[in-house]
Design brief:
The complex is a heterodimer of chains A (115) and B (110). Chain A is mainly beta and 115 residues long. Chain A has no helices and eleven strands. Chain A is globular. By secondary structure, chain B is mostly beta strands. At the A-B interface, β5 and β10 of A face β4, β5, β9 and β10 of B.
């Protein structure tokens, strides 16, 4: 499968615990995006990378959230001291940067439930 | 007010019907317009992508963009039960992140 992959697919954690999600983009896609989607809503932008550089962060990304893409390939999203309001689907998308390459391809998501 | 507003649904139609899904937007800087389909508990899947006003057709799907009215639509002809999903409109400024509508849940009844 050459699509975007995410791991784990599901995560249940207790409030206050730290969690980390991984995203493997389509190979050679240099842009990687993280979105969060809550029930009945469309995905909301969190942050994106071009290669290993984190270029933009949304106001939704509080200081408990951190994302990395150390070698410009896979990315991790960590949430520290989880809260019940963090329960959502976390989606990763990738694309190839270029003026006519606006299409983003999404992974299956990681569904987080904070108890 | 959200930058992208989408008809909320849910929408239920009989098999074979023509479906119309609609979004409006307020940011005139948006230049790229997409429709994604999302099945329950899955990631969004790209259906259509366009960057100009007018119609773009792909099989049973037609995407329509009217930049002067800031209005986009997706039409599905001869709808099938397998089309039952949530449809998300999305748009972007060049090389920026996508801004999504809230989605319309569609059910096609056999």
């Amino acid at each position: 499968d050459t699509g975007v992959s995410q791991d784990p697919r599901h995560k249940i954690t207790k409030r206050g615990q730290n969690v980390t999600f991984r995203c493997d983009p389509i190979s050679e896609h240099n842009r990687l995006y993280w979105y969060r989607q809550t029930l009945g809503q469309g995905p909301e932008f969190l942050t994106y990378f071009q290669n290993e550089a984190q270029l933009e962060k949304s106001r939704l990304l509080s200081d408990r959230f951190s994302a990395e893409r150390p070698k410009g390939s896979f990315s991790t999203l960590e949430i520290q001291r989880t809260e019940q309001g963090d329960s959502a689907m976390y989606l990763c998308a990738s694309r190839l940067a270029g003026y006519d390459q606006e299409t983003q391809y999404f992974g299956p998501g990681t569904r987080l439930l904070v108890l | 007010q959200k930058e992208v507003e989408q008809d909320p649904g849910p929408l239920s139609v009989p098999e074979g019907a023509i479906v119309s899904l609609n979004c409006t937007y307020s940011n005139s800087a948006f230049q790229y317009f997409m429709w994604y389909r999302q099945y329950s508990r899955k990631g969004p899947e790209l259906l259509m992508y366009t960057y100009s006003s007018g119609n773009k057709e792909d099989g049973r799907f037609t995407a329509q963009v009217d930049k002067s009215s800031k209005y986009i639509s997706l039409f599905i002809r001869d709808s099938q039960p397998s089309d039952s999903a949530t449809y998300l409109c999305a748009m972007s400024i060049p090389v920026r992140q996508l801004t999504f509508g809230s989605g319309t849940q569609l059910t096609v009844l056999p």
